[in-house]
Amino acid sequence: MTTTVDDVPAVERVAVGQGTPEGTNSAYLLPERGVVIDPGPPTESAWADLQAGLERAALTLEAVEYVLVTHWHADHAGLAPRLAEAADATLAMGDTDAPIIADYAAERDRRLERDAETMRTWGAPDDAVAAVLEGDRPSPLPDSFPVERLADGDRIAGLEVLATPGHTLGHVAFASGANGDADADTGAVFVGDAVLPTYTPNVGGSDTRTRTTDPLGDYVETLSRLERRPEPLLPGHGTTLAADRIEEIRSHHHARTERVVAALEGLEPATPWAVACELFGDLSGIHVKFGAGEAAAHLEALETENAVNRVEDEPVTYRLP
Ligand SMILES: [Zn+2]
Fold first, then answer.
1. CA of 206 to the centre of ligand 1 (A)
2. How far is the CA of 188 from the centre of ligand 1 (A)?
């Protein structure tokens, strides 16, 4: 069975913004609880979409009490401070991603430095790194804004917070069923970018804070956690998830792991950047970060299983055992 928002009468989906490669962003409204989840990208057109959606759902700004955000990426969190301010509502996020919005200006500077250093560690050449930084434009967000920090298992506005790391370090999902019941009217899990209908969420390049962790290992655990939920899963882009979508994403990652090993066989020793170029061809713009990050995440997971050896740290370089 596919899962779609039409199955959950207490929830309204609003398509916000122009769409990204993953599909149009989904803001979800729970009018009875005064909740808006992932209000959308920080653009005027998305703001207009959101206002129209609130009106359709008969949810007035005064009645919005909580703005909940699954992760720090601007296409999800971008309108959150503006909406929280206009509605005098509480903005809340997972505690690990919260600082990136709460302290946006300073965290952005730190992120750019970290992104550059990380891409160099992955073996990306200086001109490719410079092009990524050049294309990374600041979002129109306040320099700082109060954000309530949520931990795994917390409840807010009757929703349960589920830590779902991988795509970002502090990604969370929100479950609206009472104690995990698949309540036909209200039960759903808002999964943000943890599970998407057509794209496989980027892991490794979409949050360089994950570099010192095993983001792919964490992400595979996230998939298992979400797969066990009885409620319909509602994605942060698009409307509908196929019943076997999680299985499909998992097998995509298995296939990619095999391709990473095959690429390493031909190249070794090799950096994540070299493996990414072998796998994805010429990488430019933001794909430098995403592609090399994806290869790095696979190599890290392989290293955890002792299936590859790290032979150098700067740039990080791998060999088959
Ligand atoms: Zn994202």
1. 7
2. 20
**What is the spatial distance between Cα 54 and Cα 238, in angstroms, rounded to a whole number?**
18
Task: Express each pLDDT in 195-220 by its tens digit.
Answer: 999 999 999 999 999 998 999 999 99
State both tokens at 160. 């349960």
CA 138 to ligand 1 center in whole angstroms: 16
261 pLDDT higher than 60:
yes
How far away, in angstroms, is 36 Cα from ligand 1 center?
A: 17
Q: What is the structure's pLDDT at 66?
A: 98
Q: For residue 246, how far is its CA from the centre of ligand 1 (angstroms)?
A: 17
Please report the pLDDT score of residue 279 as a whole number: 94
Tell me what the mean pLDDT of segment 293-298 comes to: 97
Domain architecture of the chain: domains with CATH: 3-245 (3.60.15.10)
Q: What's the token pair of residue 51? A: 């206002």
CA quadruple 191, 192, 194, 198: dihedral sign: positive
Taking alpha carbons only, the member of 320, 296, 250 closest to residue 115 is: 296
